[in-house]
């Protein structure tokens, strides 16, 4: 093999320099992007915003994280398009910027992760209004959901603003709500909540096995119907499908009031609906929202993964805290 001709060498050298300067421009652009203020575009009158210009990761620039955090408290749920670079690891690392992350108390996480995975083929369809994990006295503060597999169409998710719902109550209902406490449990009445959906046999079987895992041990809490948001000081209604009954009332009275307040929360004016695309991430403030995953895609496949950030016990308007009332399991003989 002879020596390469001088001209080819020179071309290689020029290419290398061009390549290097291209790389450094890319690096500079990335660095600049990291420092750019994000654009926040509200989506509806009372809840939800799309955030443009962020590349989510555990290494997000502090200024951008501060901006996201402030936007989350203000808009309750934030949406990010095009986060195709996220891996299980970087998704979790991003979630950790909000605090400690936790796996679900009863549903096992996919190997080596702390995710709650909702897989439509295994009964993972959250098609009932809820705030996440309120059967735990200290329920999650923030959740970060990433689309993994999406149906061709359908499978949107809707969020509702529970602060706006509280603020929209007439004074007598506010006063009533502020005095009430509800028992929340992971063994809530599934049939009641899901009766509206005509499911295929595959879906029905998936749901049954998911429910079995979900309720493998009963976890219960008592939560105030109105809680004070620990970061903003706002009052919010705290209900959703895990709320089984209102303390101290007869069953029919409890059912009527749960329905009355839940309907207030999910009024369309309090909601935003998100149509998922591959690469999307949604972050919600679980202390100020409920959500509902629309189950309109039949047996098509839909998988999402959720990072759950640990929260604190709720505080009622008169300064009392939510309580864990889980009955301890008998010790194995
Ligand atoms: O499937 C969804 O879009 C939302 C699922 C859900 O309820 C959750 O991740 O907490
Ligand atoms: Fe949820």
Automatic annotation (TrEMBL):
A Pfam family this chain is assigned to: TauD
Cofactors named for this entry: Fe(2+)
Keywords, alphabetical: Dioxygenase, Iron, Metal-binding, Oxidoreductase
Listed InterPro entries: AtsK-like, TauD-like_sf, TauD/TfdA-like
Keyword field contains Hydrolase: no
Gene Ontology, cellular component aspect: cytoplasm
Organism of origin: Delftia acidovorans (strain DSM 14801 / SPH-1)
Annotated protein name in UniProt: Taurine dioxygenase
UniProt keyword Amino-acid biosynthesis present: no
GO molecular function: metal ion binding; taurine dioxygenase activity
